[in-house]
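Blackboard transcription, Thursday session:
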Amino acid sequence: MKIKYNLIKKAGNARYGKLETNYGTYETPMFMPVGTLANVKTLVPEELKDVNSGIILSNTYHLWLRPGEDIVAKAGGLHKFMNYDGPILTDSGGFQVFSLVKDKKKDITEQGVHFKSHIDGKPLFLTPELSIQIQNKLDSDIAMSFDECIPPNASYEYTKASTERTLRWAKRGKKVFDNERQSLFGIVQGGAFSDLRKYSAEETVKLDFDGYSIGGVAIGEEKPVTYQMIDDAIKYLPENKPRYLMGVGEPLDIIEGIERGVDMFDCVLPTRLARHGNAFTPYGKINLKNAKYKQDFEPIDVECDCYTCQNYSKAYIRHLMVAKESLGGRLLSIHNIRFLIKLTEDARAAIKNESYQEFKEKFINKYQK
Amino acid sequence: MKIKYNLIKKAGNARYGKLETNYGTYETPMFMPVGTLANVKTLVPEELKDVNSGIILSNTYHLWLRPGEDIVAKAGGLHKFMNYDGPILTDSGGFQVFSLVKDKKKDITEQGVHFKSHIDGKPLFLTPELSIQIQNKLDSDIAMSFDECIPPNASYEYTKASTERTLRWAKRGKKVFDNERQSLFGIVQGGAFSDLRKYSAEETVKLDFDGYSIGGVAIGEEKPVTYQMIDDAIKYLPENKPRYLMGVGEPLDIIEGIERGVDMFDCVLPTRLARHGNAFTPYGKINLKNAKYKQDFEPIDVECDCYTCQNYSKAYIRHLMVAKESLGGRLLSIHNIRFLIKLTEDARAAIKNESYQEFKEKFINKYQK
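(Written on the board underneath:)
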């Protein structure tokens, strides 16, 4: 079935809602952990359920290259392949073409994007149709339109032309889309230009997607610009569809995004931070490799309900990180993902209680001190 | 409390027994997974319990260097530090001095061994007393005497002198041993010389340890030599104490060891193989990176009851290994450890049923075909 968004309560622009999916109903705003290569790095599905994760994200570009969408399809789709019986969102590959390809060189044509594989340099050609066809085969619950992620320094002229092309790509992708149990989201681009964000949002909405995402933000511009880009797009998005802010996972950005009416967030940040020994805490990020945790036998956060904080000390995790034992990254991934999911749970409670501003101020005061 | 071994049934020399420990009673013969740095690589304690693991091993040499025995002691001992409420055996560091130290250069004196850290080349000096004192602080359930692991090519003269020194070291370690809830095992050396194995076994037994291990085997010599070394030592060990064959984890060696009267085995093999994509199966080892598993949607072993085989296909694990996702090694570690533990469970059942020879032949025929 197509996903269905039910708006239950608003507090300012912040929204509390419920998202009906093929795999149950989940509350929003939500944070979606990223499972790039059909796994959230180091973790199994049971651990994601334990941290109260709902939708997870997986990457079309990565799965296209390895193991290939046909193998995933033969396995019975992405859920069966990776043993995850929860909802999965696949991105379109547009962001990876922007951020990951070999030498960052690409040739963007009306037809699609020519670039080289980040693995072996092999020439590749990704089109809006192919992105959708791969996602149809992966059989995720939510697919994304193929877009160009515009660099932060792009000119008005370039941004306008690219935004218009992304709209044409969205139409082409929608045309070939063929999976009844999958939903399709459109992506609003427009760079840092308010009128282009408005144009992109309005034109994308006209195409009637199952949800809308705001793309091309938090990729290098200053925070006020990021927040302005969200404001410029979101006011033209319909109330009855979910809004997804792509690639955003910093706690403060999540809080600002929720305040502006965003329902869904994803980011590799919790697992990437974990691999480098970093943990979120209510008082900001800490790095467990720091010598001061050598004899700190307290958990990362005494108030955290995650498996890691219930069972392990900072000293133990520090030891694992220093000794390069991958269990350290695993334990930190559990904690960091739980931290962001708990943040959205608290945000939801605050919206329901009409206390979002107090919640926000309290969190920020603690987190930044 | 000191461990207590109860011999329940013999089939030839093979023994079925029970080992009472500080953390419950476990059946033998048993395979002990290795948690070198206070974790069985990639796994949490719950996963070890799930595969029906009993005693696990941890390495004194590694923990001495990182995080240091004083930090483990301050954490409340190794169990609390790593959150494992099952029995733990620590080795003495003797094997690591033999196999791991920088440039493999060491200076063995009567007092102890001078060598360089494998991490930073720092000069280190490990003595029989220090090894025991470190283990006392780590507060494992079973500590091992400090010994010299004699190279396979050593002369009779060298082996005799070293074996005698190891006996003197065993006495010295026993003298300083000071931990009431910890047991202490002696180690039989003697190289590939039957008379020296006899001498070492008899003299070690005279020192009255809580258990005896056979050391210096399976480190490069041919299989018949390995098995002879076990035979040459084990017949002089008392029936009422557990016998531990150190560092042995190949399925066929475990089966031969059990037949000869060994009760305990340990090896890094299941986790090391896992990290390289290898899995035990009843038909021998397979490497999941092999292209032939690309579209193999069956589990590694349809009859295996482990979490990995219950939930994941060879194609998925192959994908994880090829994409260098550490979850692949984690899933394979679970399977490989379960495989060796199940092997000992089946061996125990066969001893109880007086069908050990049939069990052995059946296993070998399948495994080697």
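Lecturer's comment: The mean pLDDT of chain B is 96.
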